[in-house]
TrEMBL record:
UniProt topology in membrane: Multi-pass membrane protein
Keyword Transport listed: yes
Gene Ontology, cellular component aspect: plasma membrane
Keyword Amino-acid biosynthesis annotated: no
PANTHER family assigned to the protein according to its UniProt record, in alphabetical order: OLIGOPEPTIDE TRANSPORT SYSTEM PERMEASE PROTEIN APPC (PTHR43386), OLIGOPEPTIDE TRANSPORT SYSTEM PERMEASE PROTEIN OPPC (PTHR43386:SF2)
Organism, as annotated: Methylobacterium oryzihabitans
Gene Ontology terms describing biological process: peptide transport; protein transport; transmembrane transport
Entry protein name: Oligopeptide transport system permease protein OppC
Domain ABC transmembrane type-1, first and last residues per copy: 163-352
Family per similarity comment: Belongs to the binding-protein-dependent transport system permease family. OppBC subfamily.
Pfam families noted in UniProt: BPD_transp_1 (PF00528), OppC_N (PF12911)
Length: 364
Protein backbone atom coordinates (compact mmCIF):
# COMPACT_ATOMS: atom_id res chain seq x y z
CA UNK A 1 0.00 0.00 0.00
CA UNK A 2 1.46 3.33 -1.03
CA UNK A 3 0.93 6.74 0.39
CA UNK A 4 1.19 10.14 -1.14
CA UNK A 5 4.51 11.86 -0.71
CA UNK A 6 5.06 13.88 2.41
CA UNK A 7 6.54 17.30 1.59
CA UNK A 8 7.92 17.29 -1.98
CA UNK A 9 11.28 15.59 -2.23
CA UNK A 10 12.99 18.65 -3.67
CA UNK A 11 11.41 21.20 -1.31
CA UNK A 12 14.38 21.67 0.96
CA UNK A 13 16.79 21.59 -1.95
CA UNK A 14 14.86 24.49 -3.52
CA UNK A 15 14.92 26.24 -0.17
CA UNK A 16 18.70 25.97 0.01
CA UNK A 17 18.99 27.46 -3.48
CA UNK A 18 16.77 30.44 -2.58
CA UNK A 19 18.99 33.40 -1.57
CA UNK A 20 16.16 35.12 0.30
CA UNK A 21 15.41 32.00 2.36
CA UNK A 22 19.07 31.42 3.17
CA UNK A 23 19.60 35.09 4.10
CA UNK A 24 16.54 35.26 6.33
CA UNK A 25 17.49 32.00 8.06
CA UNK A 26 21.02 33.33 8.63
CA UNK A 27 19.61 36.50 10.18
CA UNK A 28 17.36 34.46 12.47
CA UNK A 29 20.27 32.28 13.58
CA UNK A 30 22.41 35.35 14.28
CA UNK A 31 19.64 36.97 16.33
CA UNK A 32 19.03 33.76 18.28
CA UNK A 33 22.76 33.28 18.91
CA UNK A 34 23.15 36.90 20.02
CA UNK A 35 20.23 36.59 22.44
CA UNK A 36 21.54 33.31 23.81
CA UNK A 37 25.24 34.17 24.22
CA UNK A 38 25.32 37.97 24.08
CA UNK A 39 24.22 38.70 27.68
CA UNK A 40 27.20 36.67 28.91
CA UNK A 41 29.62 38.87 26.96
CA UNK A 42 28.34 42.40 27.58
CA UNK A 43 29.77 42.65 31.08
CA UNK A 44 26.47 43.77 32.60
CA UNK A 45 23.65 41.95 34.36
CA UNK A 46 20.25 42.61 32.82
CA UNK A 47 18.85 43.79 36.16
CA UNK A 48 21.93 45.72 37.38
CA UNK A 49 21.07 49.37 38.01
CA UNK A 50 23.84 51.94 37.55
CA UNK A 51 22.53 54.89 39.51
CA UNK A 52 25.17 57.22 38.09
CA UNK A 53 24.24 56.47 34.46
CA UNK A 54 20.49 56.92 33.91
CA UNK A 55 19.54 57.49 30.26
CA UNK A 56 23.14 57.44 29.10
CA UNK A 57 23.28 57.75 25.29
CA UNK A 58 24.95 55.03 23.17
CA UNK A 59 28.70 55.42 22.84
CA UNK A 60 31.80 53.42 21.93
CA UNK A 61 33.79 55.35 24.53
CA UNK A 62 34.19 54.14 28.08
CA UNK A 63 32.45 56.03 30.86
CA UNK A 64 32.88 58.09 32.99
CA UNK A 65 33.89 61.09 30.92
CA UNK A 66 36.73 63.17 32.47
CA UNK A 67 34.57 66.23 33.11
CA UNK A 68 32.08 64.28 35.24
CA UNK A 69 34.48 63.00 37.91
CA UNK A 70 34.92 66.31 39.74
CA UNK A 71 31.19 66.98 40.27
CA UNK A 72 30.71 63.31 41.20
CA UNK A 73 33.39 63.58 43.90
CA UNK A 74 31.75 66.72 45.28
CA UNK A 75 28.43 64.88 45.56
CA UNK A 76 30.07 61.91 47.29
CA UNK A 77 31.96 64.20 49.66
CA UNK A 78 28.69 65.85 50.63
CA UNK A 79 27.22 62.45 51.49
CA UNK A 80 30.36 61.54 53.46
CA UNK A 81 30.15 64.88 55.35
CA UNK A 82 33.70 65.81 54.32
CA UNK A 83 35.37 68.20 51.87
CA UNK A 84 37.15 66.98 48.74
CA UNK A 85 40.46 68.84 48.37
CA UNK A 86 43.58 68.52 46.20
CA UNK A 87 41.75 66.41 43.62
CA UNK A 88 43.99 64.82 40.98
CA UNK A 89 42.32 62.83 38.20
CA UNK A 90 44.04 60.43 35.79
CA UNK A 91 42.42 57.99 33.35
CA UNK A 92 43.12 55.11 35.74
CA UNK A 93 42.62 56.58 39.22
CA UNK A 94 41.71 59.62 41.26
CA UNK A 95 43.63 61.01 44.23
CA UNK A 96 42.13 63.44 46.71
CA UNK A 97 42.23 64.59 50.31
CA UNK A 98 39.18 64.20 52.50
CA UNK A 99 39.06 66.99 55.09
CA UNK A 100 36.64 67.62 57.96
CA UNK A 101 36.42 69.57 61.20
CA UNK A 102 36.69 66.35 63.19
CA UNK A 103 38.58 63.08 62.63
CA UNK A 104 37.53 61.31 59.41
CA UNK A 105 36.21 57.78 59.86
CA UNK A 106 37.75 55.48 57.21
CA UNK A 107 34.45 53.67 56.88
CA UNK A 108 33.14 56.59 54.79
CA UNK A 109 35.36 55.31 51.97
CA UNK A 110 32.66 52.73 51.36
CA UNK A 111 30.72 55.46 49.55
CA UNK A 112 33.41 55.46 46.86
CA UNK A 113 33.31 51.68 46.48
CA UNK A 114 29.51 51.65 46.23
CA UNK A 115 29.60 54.26 43.50
CA UNK A 116 29.41 53.23 39.85
CA UNK A 117 32.36 55.54 39.09
CA UNK A 118 35.07 54.34 41.47
CA UNK A 119 36.47 51.14 42.90
CA UNK A 120 37.54 50.42 46.51
CA UNK A 121 39.71 53.25 47.85
CA UNK A 122 42.93 52.89 49.79
CA UNK A 123 44.41 55.28 52.31
CA UNK A 124 47.72 56.89 51.31
CA UNK A 125 48.29 59.15 54.31
CA UNK A 126 46.56 60.43 57.40
CA UNK A 127 47.18 63.65 59.36
CA UNK A 128 48.17 63.34 63.03
CA UNK A 129 44.83 64.75 64.18
CA UNK A 130 42.92 62.50 61.77
CA UNK A 131 41.09 65.42 60.11
CA UNK A 132 42.75 64.97 56.72
CA UNK A 133 42.83 61.69 54.84
CA UNK A 134 44.69 61.25 51.55
CA UNK A 135 43.14 58.45 49.49
CA UNK A 136 43.35 56.93 46.02
CA UNK A 137 40.51 55.17 44.22
CA UNK A 138 40.59 53.47 40.82
CA UNK A 139 38.24 54.80 38.16
CA UNK A 140 35.70 52.16 37.12
CA UNK A 141 35.42 52.10 33.33
CA UNK A 142 32.09 51.00 31.88
CA UNK A 143 30.86 50.78 28.29
CA UNK A 144 27.24 51.13 27.23
CA UNK A 145 27.33 50.45 23.50
CA UNK A 146 23.60 51.00 23.07
CA UNK A 147 23.05 53.28 26.06
CA UNK A 148 21.07 52.75 29.25
CA UNK A 149 17.42 53.01 30.19
CA UNK A 150 15.70 55.38 32.62
CA UNK A 151 17.01 53.45 35.64
CA UNK A 152 20.57 53.12 34.36
CA UNK A 153 20.42 49.49 33.16
CA UNK A 154 22.45 48.47 30.11
CA UNK A 155 20.07 48.52 27.15
CA UNK A 156 22.04 46.06 25.00
CA UNK A 157 21.95 43.39 27.71
CA UNK A 158 18.27 43.94 28.43
CA UNK A 159 17.40 43.82 24.72
CA UNK A 160 19.22 40.51 24.27
CA UNK A 161 17.60 39.01 27.38
CA UNK A 162 14.24 40.33 26.14
CA UNK A 163 14.91 38.51 22.86
CA UNK A 164 15.26 35.24 24.78
CA UNK A 165 11.82 35.74 26.31
CA UNK A 166 10.11 36.84 23.09
CA UNK A 167 11.66 34.11 20.92
CA UNK A 168 11.04 31.40 23.53
CA UNK A 169 7.43 32.46 23.91
CA UNK A 170 6.98 32.50 20.14
CA UNK A 171 8.45 29.02 19.71
CA UNK A 172 6.65 27.45 22.67
CA UNK A 173 3.26 28.94 21.80
CA UNK A 174 3.73 27.81 18.20
CA UNK A 175 4.58 24.30 19.39
CA UNK A 176 1.38 24.23 21.47
CA UNK A 177 -0.66 25.53 18.53
CA UNK A 178 0.97 22.93 16.30
CA UNK A 179 0.17 20.05 18.66
CA UNK A 180 -3.39 21.07 19.53
CA UNK A 181 -4.31 22.34 16.10
CA UNK A 182 -3.00 19.34 14.16
CA UNK A 183 -4.64 16.80 16.49
CA UNK A 184 -7.96 18.64 16.69
CA UNK A 185 -8.20 19.49 12.99
CA UNK A 186 -7.09 16.05 11.81
CA UNK A 187 -9.70 14.28 13.94
CA UNK A 188 -12.49 16.65 12.88
CA UNK A 189 -11.64 16.48 9.17
CA UNK A 190 -11.22 12.71 9.14
CA UNK A 191 -14.36 11.79 11.09
CA UNK A 192 -16.58 14.36 9.38
CA UNK A 193 -20.33 14.44 9.84
CA UNK A 194 -21.86 15.41 13.17
CA UNK A 195 -18.55 15.06 15.02
CA UNK A 196 -16.87 17.51 12.66
CA UNK A 197 -19.76 19.97 12.96
CA UNK A 198 -19.72 19.85 16.77
CA UNK A 199 -15.93 20.23 16.99
CA UNK A 200 -15.85 23.19 14.61
CA UNK A 201 -18.68 24.95 16.48
CA UNK A 202 -16.41 24.86 19.54
CA UNK A 203 -13.73 26.54 17.45
CA UNK A 204 -16.22 29.19 16.33
CA UNK A 205 -17.19 29.91 19.93
CA UNK A 206 -13.55 30.35 20.93
CA UNK A 207 -13.03 32.64 17.93
CA UNK A 208 -15.83 34.87 19.21
CA UNK A 209 -14.12 35.51 22.57
CA UNK A 210 -12.37 38.92 22.67
CA UNK A 211 -8.70 38.08 23.17
CA UNK A 212 -7.71 41.15 25.22
CA UNK A 213 -10.75 40.68 27.50
CA UNK A 214 -9.74 37.04 27.95
CA UNK A 215 -6.21 38.07 28.96
CA UNK A 216 -7.52 40.71 31.38
CA UNK A 217 -9.72 38.12 33.07
CA UNK A 218 -6.75 35.75 33.44
CA UNK A 219 -4.65 38.56 34.94
CA UNK A 220 -7.41 39.47 37.40
CA UNK A 221 -7.82 35.90 38.66
CA UNK A 222 -4.26 34.56 38.46
CA UNK A 223 -1.94 37.59 38.49
CA UNK A 224 0.75 38.60 36.02
CA UNK A 225 3.51 36.17 35.13
CA UNK A 226 5.16 34.72 32.05
CA UNK A 227 3.32 31.39 32.21
CA UNK A 228 0.00 33.24 32.02
CA UNK A 229 1.00 34.92 28.76
CA UNK A 230 2.06 31.57 27.34
CA UNK A 231 -1.32 30.08 28.35
CA UNK A 232 -3.30 32.99 26.90
CA UNK A 233 -1.49 32.99 23.56
CA UNK A 234 -1.47 29.21 23.25
CA UNK A 235 -5.20 29.04 23.99
CA UNK A 236 -6.01 31.19 20.95
CA UNK A 237 -3.39 30.61 18.28
CA UNK A 238 -4.20 26.91 17.70
CA UNK A 239 -7.60 27.76 16.21
CA UNK A 240 -6.27 28.76 12.78
CA UNK A 241 -4.07 25.67 12.72
CA UNK A 242 -7.07 23.45 13.46
CA UNK A 243 -9.04 24.90 10.54
CA UNK A 244 -6.15 24.52 8.12
CA UNK A 245 -5.52 20.89 9.12
CA UNK A 246 -9.24 20.12 8.99
CA UNK A 247 -9.42 21.29 5.38
CA UNK A 248 -6.36 19.23 4.45
CA UNK A 249 -7.75 16.17 6.25
CA UNK A 250 -11.11 16.43 4.42
CA UNK A 251 -9.25 16.44 1.10
CA UNK A 252 -6.86 13.62 2.07
CA UNK A 253 -9.58 11.24 3.30
CA UNK A 254 -11.02 11.12 -0.26
CA UNK A 255 -7.68 10.01 -1.76
CA UNK A 256 -7.37 6.52 -3.19
CA UNK A 257 -4.71 5.36 -0.70
CA UNK A 258 -6.97 6.30 2.23
CA UNK A 259 -9.95 4.50 0.68
CA UNK A 260 -7.71 1.47 0.11
CA UNK A 261 -6.60 1.53 3.76
CA UNK A 262 -10.22 1.63 4.89
CA UNK A 263 -11.05 -1.29 2.60
CA UNK A 264 -8.21 -3.29 4.16
CA UNK A 265 -9.69 -2.66 7.62
CA UNK A 266 -7.41 0.07 8.94
CA UNK A 267 -8.98 1.93 11.83
CA UNK A 268 -9.31 5.68 12.22
CA UNK A 269 -6.25 6.03 14.53
CA UNK A 270 -4.06 4.20 12.02
CA UNK A 271 -5.34 6.31 9.13
CA UNK A 272 -4.70 9.47 11.08
CA UNK A 273 -1.19 8.39 12.06
CA UNK A 274 -0.06 6.91 8.73
CA UNK A 275 -1.86 8.99 6.12
CA UNK A 276 -3.66 12.14 7.24
CA UNK A 277 -1.11 13.79 9.52
CA UNK A 278 2.03 13.02 7.41
CA UNK A 279 0.40 14.28 4.21
CA UNK A 280 -0.86 17.47 5.88
CA UNK A 281 2.59 18.47 7.17
CA UNK A 282 3.49 20.65 4.17
CA UNK A 283 1.03 23.51 4.80
CA UNK A 284 1.28 22.92 8.55
CA UNK A 285 5.05 23.53 8.59
CA UNK A 286 4.68 26.62 6.44
CA UNK A 287 1.93 28.03 8.64
CA UNK A 288 3.95 27.28 11.78
CA UNK A 289 6.84 29.33 10.40
CA UNK A 290 4.44 32.24 9.86
CA UNK A 291 2.85 31.77 13.27
CA UNK A 292 6.05 32.47 15.23
CA UNK A 293 6.19 36.17 14.24
CA UNK A 294 2.48 36.52 14.99
CA UNK A 295 2.98 35.21 18.51
CA UNK A 296 5.99 37.47 19.10
CA UNK A 297 4.04 40.48 17.89
CA UNK A 298 1.06 39.50 20.05
CA UNK A 299 3.25 39.19 23.15
CA UNK A 300 4.80 42.56 22.39
CA UNK A 301 1.32 44.07 22.10
CA UNK A 302 0.27 42.62 25.46
CA UNK A 303 3.48 43.80 27.13
CA UNK A 304 3.00 47.25 25.60
CA UNK A 305 -0.41 47.37 27.29
CA UNK A 306 1.12 46.31 30.61
CA UNK A 307 -0.49 42.85 30.53
CA UNK A 308 2.63 40.88 29.64
CA UNK A 309 6.05 40.26 31.11
CA UNK A 310 6.71 42.06 34.40
CA UNK A 311 9.86 43.57 35.92
CA UNK A 312 12.64 42.73 36.46
CA UNK A 313 12.21 40.30 33.56
CA UNK A 314 11.68 41.98 30.23
CA UNK A 315 10.66 41.40 26.62
CA UNK A 316 10.82 43.43 23.44
CA UNK A 317 7.29 44.65 24.03
CA UNK A 318 8.16 45.89 27.54
CA UNK A 319 11.25 47.72 26.26
CA UNK A 320 9.31 49.31 23.40
CA UNK A 321 6.65 50.51 25.84
CA UNK A 322 9.34 52.06 28.05
CA UNK A 323 11.03 53.62 25.04
CA UNK A 324 7.77 55.09 23.75
CA UNK A 325 7.32 56.98 27.02
CA UNK A 326 10.84 58.44 26.77
CA UNK A 327 11.05 58.99 23.02
CA UNK A 328 11.47 62.78 23.25
CA UNK A 329 14.48 62.71 25.56
CA UNK A 330 15.96 59.23 24.95
CA UNK A 331 15.07 58.03 21.46
CA UNK A 332 17.55 55.14 21.61
CA UNK A 333 15.41 53.46 24.28
CA UNK A 334 12.76 52.92 21.60
CA UNK A 335 15.01 52.49 18.56
CA UNK A 336 17.15 49.63 19.91
CA UNK A 337 14.44 47.08 20.89
CA UNK A 338 12.24 48.13 17.97
CA UNK A 339 15.10 47.44 15.54
CA UNK A 340 15.63 43.94 16.95
CA UNK A 341 11.89 43.23 16.79
CA UNK A 342 11.48 44.51 13.23
CA UNK A 343 14.50 42.60 11.91
CA UNK A 344 13.30 39.38 13.55
CA UNK A 345 9.73 39.72 12.30
CA UNK A 346 10.80 40.54 8.74
CA UNK A 347 13.19 37.57 8.66
CA UNK A 348 10.57 35.20 10.09
CA UNK A 349 7.88 36.31 7.65
CA UNK A 350 10.24 36.11 4.69
CA UNK A 351 11.44 32.66 5.65
CA UNK A 352 7.86 31.50 6.21
CA UNK A 353 6.81 32.74 2.77
CA UNK A 354 9.76 31.01 1.09
CA UNK A 355 9.13 27.81 3.02
CA UNK A 356 5.48 27.84 1.97
CA UNK A 357 6.50 28.24 -1.67
CA UNK A 358 9.09 25.46 -1.40
CA UNK A 359 6.52 23.06 0.08
CA UNK A 360 3.89 23.89 -2.55
CA UNK A 361 3.27 20.68 -4.54
CA UNK A 362 2.79 22.73 -7.70
CA UNK A 363 6.46 23.73 -7.48
CA UNK A 364 7.66 20.13 -7.39
Amino acid sequence: MTTAATPPAGAFARLRRDPAAVSSLAVLLLVALACLVGPLLTGHAYDRIYYDYPRTPPSWRAYPEPGTLGPALDRLALRMRVRAEDVSVTPEAVRLTLAADRPVDERVLGFLARSDLFGPARVLARSPDGRRLSVEAPVRRLRFLLGTDALGRDLLTRTLVAGRVSLALGLLATAVALGLGVAYGAVAGTLGGAVDAAMMRVVDILYALPFVFFVIMLVVFFGRHLGLIFLAVGAVEWLDMARIVRGEAMAIRRRDYVLAAEALGAGTPAILRRHVVPNALGPVIAFAALLVPRVILLESFLSFLGLGVQEPMTSWGVLIADGARAIESSAWMLAVPAAFLVVTLVALNLFGDRLRDALDPREA
